[in-house]
Protein: L-threonylcarbamoyladenylate synthase
Organism: Streptomyces ficellus
Amino acid sequence: MAKYFDVHPENPQRRTISSVADSIRSGGLVAYPTDSCFALGCQLGNRDGLSRIRSIRNLDDRHHFTLVCQNFAQLGQFVHIDNDVFRAIKASTPGSYTFILPATKEVPRQLLHPKKKTVGVRIPDHAVAQALLAELGEPLLSSTLLLPDEAEPLTQGWEIKERLDHVVDAVVDSGDCGTEPTTVIDFSGGEAEIVRRGAGETSRFE
């Protein structure tokens, strides 16, 4: 049965965030809010968590998982970024964007796109997600909480708790999340390619 954490959306309670982080460190899979919609998250090296995300979302091995990072310095440890791409991403973060980039050796092989050797990275503009990332001191391996055959992500913490009670370890609820996932920009070829139009403004990448 999943633990349920009710968190203030702008001033997350430190003790509560610490409890969520402890759950993640001990191998837990959590549903947590971001600036686009709810996401599923676990530690980077958590193979069971990765497997559960694949199972919950019915994902194949071509799915780009996302490393949700606290800041640009952390993001830079996990992807290769040249100067032009650096400037474009820096101007758009934090925000509702996921960037697909060539991965460094810090990224576990099972997270990489099998042919491109790329991974998604993002820095959310959300107080609760940022507090959790700060407490963890490392990125969260994440994927949008969009269930198979459903058009929109789940937006209510209580509903997530109800429907995923036996497949996640914790639900972090700070009120309604949006239904629009991040805008996805693929920089792996050197030029910006808009893969998905979502919550982030796309004009600067066109």
The chain has a mean pLDDT of 94. The first strand starts at residue 3 and ends at 6.
